Fold this protein.
Amino acid sequence: MDNFVIEGKHTLTGEIPISGSKNAALPALAATVLTEDTVILERIPEVRDVWTMMRLLKHIGVCIEQSDNAYSFKSELISLPEAPYNLVKTMRASSLVLGPLIARTGRARVSMPGGCAIGARPIDLHMNALEQLGARITQDHGYVEAQAPDGLHGSNIRFERVTVTGTEDIMMAAVLARGETVLENAALEPEVVDLANLLKKMGALIEGEGTPTIKIQGVDRLRSAHHAIIADRIEAGTFLIAGLAVGHGLTVTGVHAAHLEAVTEKMSQAGAEISYPREDAIYVEPKEPLRAVDISTQEYPGFPTDMQAQWMALMTQANGKSQIVENIFENRFMHVSELSRMGAKISLAGNHASVHGKTTLSGAAVMASDLRASAGLLIAALAASGETVIDRVYHIDRGYEDIEKKLAAVGAHIRRV
Ligand code: UD1
């Protein structure tokens, strides 16, 4: 298993190009099964979750070809509308094929994702919504089986709580359903909007994406399309926070600055100079001693839960006490014990964490526990004195493309062993 060995306290300067968004690529890949025509996707990040989704598509019967900077997908015949356990267990987002498969073939069999490190994360909201679209859902032997032999029909669906992949999954089911579907309390995330843009290029009729009410008029068939995935706002935010923790002028490029407003606003409050040297670039430089700033994770456009661990690592370097409230996932503080081992002072009460800064961090052997927790440990390691060894970096590889190369190029001392 790979480790990262990081020697801290080296200043980061320069530019980091940002990859395509993992969380936008995954639903876009799933959407390719909605048509028998070829779909071409550019800016697909080379990360483990994407490879898992591609293995799943191949299992289903999709032909995938890679060219210079794009992949093409052709699913002429769906031979096996099924997502097996060995693929789903490594990536919960595999449930994104449920909606497209049932819409295209009238049948889908998807392994239940089960619990995961950051909470129960069930897919009940996906299943309830599919039932409202006319699917018959049964569960046995750890699988969800959905049947709609006569096709799906439009419906008014109100999500009990905001779900990102749930909104995407049901949007993909509804584009081929008969009649109109209205999704209420839909997720506003840029990744949902990116998926809607791809589906519209394929001929889907969708209105209201990016608002809580999305209206979809079903069509008989979808067609080929060419689409470039949006930039990864979480990757960009992670590097910006690293730039504030240990940088001296760091720029992320190829980004959509508007998608990062909640994060850059908090960074400014904490003492960062943030500027926009180009339309697609964000520059960060620490201007004043870091100040403690509270965050509370929320659905978009609020502060993303996927940036919570990184913010906590940053706050160990800020003067004062900061409060961090996790509202999206029930068990997303696993990085706390590892940060404490590096010298951080953090107290936990339910979904509240209090970070008492500033503390001197010292390098230690730590264990990555999930994707974003690992990114938090990485930021702490960059700010710590001495050497940190992060074990189980396969968690980081799930969602960050070439992270050690990108960091080394701007001055970090990091190597994979
Ligand atoms: C997506 C992102 C993930 C991000 C999360 C929240 C992808 C591939 N992943 O995950 O990086 O952290 O949004 O921004 O895009 N829930 C239910 N029932 C369901 C579905 C969800 O109770 O059927 C709960 C979850 O347990 C969680 C909350 O709803 O507490 C939000 O989850 P959701 O938005 O669905 O997260 P994901 O789409 O899995």
Summary: Residues 109 and 145 are 4 Å apart (CA to CA). The mean pLDDT is 95.
